[in-house]
Structure formats: C-alpha cells, structure tokens
UniProtKB/TrEMBL annotation:
It catalyses: S-adenosyl-L-homocysteine(out) + S-adenosyl-L-methionine(in) = S-adenosyl-L-homocysteine(in) + S-adenosyl-L-methionine(out). It comes from Lates calcarifer. This is Mitochondrial S-adenosylmethionine carrier protein. The chain crosses the membrane at residues 6-27, 180-199, 240-262. Solcar repeats lie at residues 4-77, 89-171, 180-268. Its main location: mitochondrion.
Amino acid sequence: MERREFVASLVAGGCAGMCVDLTLFPLDTIKTRLQSQQGFYKAGGFRGIYAGVPSAAVGSFPNAAAFFVTYECTKSLLGAGGAVAAPHVAPVTHMLAASLGEIVACLIRVPTEVVKQRTQASPSSTTYHMLLATFREEGVRGLYRGFGSTVLREIPFSLVQFPLWEYLKTLWSWRQGHTLYSWQAAVCGAFAGAVAAFVTTPLDVVKTRIMLAKAGSTTASGNIPVVLYDVWKSRGLTGLFAGSIPRMTFISVGGFIFLGAYEKVRRTLL
C-alpha cells in the first residue's frame, strides 16, 4: 500500500467513525440499556440519552482509522500476487482483512466502550468519574473487561458484513456497467450491516453483560458460554436478541453513513 492510500484510509476511516458514533449515539444508549441486567428503565430509560458520549467522541476516530488502515493494508498484501489474488478467493481475503482489522481496532475500542456503556447504564455518573472509578477499582484490566467477548462479537460481524458489502458492490457495479457512486456503496453497507447486526445480537448481549457486571461476579469473569446460558435460562430467546431492533437500526443507518462516508472521503483524498 502506498503512503497516499495509507493516509486516505486513515483519515476516511476516522471521519466515517466519528460521523456514525456521534450521530446515532442515542440509539446505542437505548440498546445498551435494553441489554443491561437491571433492565431498560432501571438503567435510565430515556433519561440522559447522551450519557457517555465523551468516551465515544474520544475513541471513534482512532478506532475506525485503525480498523480501515489494517483492513486496506491486509487486502493489499493478500492481493499482491500468488494464489490469494485469484477472484474466487476474494471473500476469504475480505474476511481475513476484516478479522485482523477488528482485533487491532478492539485494542482502542474496548476501553472506551467499557467507560461509555457503564456511563450509559448509570446516567447519574459522568464519563470522567466512571473512568476514574473503573481504573481505581479494577486497574487497566477493568478497562479491558470484555475484550474477548468484544473480539468474538466483532469478528463474526465483520465476517458477514464486509464480504457481503464487497459482493453487493461488485454485483451492482457489474449490473450497471460502471463504478458505484458513494451513495450506492452506502446502500450496500446499510443492507450488509443490518444482516450482520441481527445474526450477532446474542454475542452483543453477552459483551454488554460482561462489561456492565460488578467486579468479582461470575459474569465479570468473562466466561462467554456461561453468560450465554444465564441469559437463555433467565430470559430465553427474547433475552438473547434483546436490543436487536435498535442494534439493527443503528448499524444499518450507521453502515449507510459509515461505509458511504468512507468511500466518499477516500475517493476524494485519492
């Protein structure tokens, strides 16, 4: 990957991430409260809908930038030559690139996500106080609570979203005979995001439960199968798919903005 492409991916990814996270933050708060153990209204209901937004604002640019730089670099490396460059393995290339991108991005995303979600579920606290409380009580380990469950959620999500997005773009471009406009890439992103969001909702519920759990509790230990079973046992299928509608809405609209903005900014810079 050339330096110009690297910078374009960095800036485009960061700008796209900020656009989505700040625009759709209220939907994310509603989803978090629906998935919390204490329930929607006890977690704050519709009060303080922007609680935790500073954490999202700080983390969104570097998080999205890290993902797309890794994604584009990996695609470039895997497509540079040899068997991996064959068209029939393009989905595998996209899956590997997206998976690596998510692992790198989670190093930035998880600490900001922990602070953000805890503030969303306790709207009387500020982001700064929640950060201090988490660090004081649990240290750096507390800020990375749920890292494994977040990666386990994000990788399957990206394994569905990005190959589907790339496939839809290729199909639409082929049918109309020219490269897609940015808004068309955004529509493909919205559809791919909605599908990926729905099928990975149970993993998102587990991630939220682990991040919000009290230190020292069974849930806080991060045992994903145990948490999945507990949710199933207490709330059934409804519990496993709690928050699926706001999550699908958030990610579908977010996919439209995120991937559309990414394509537009990247093309402009290149």
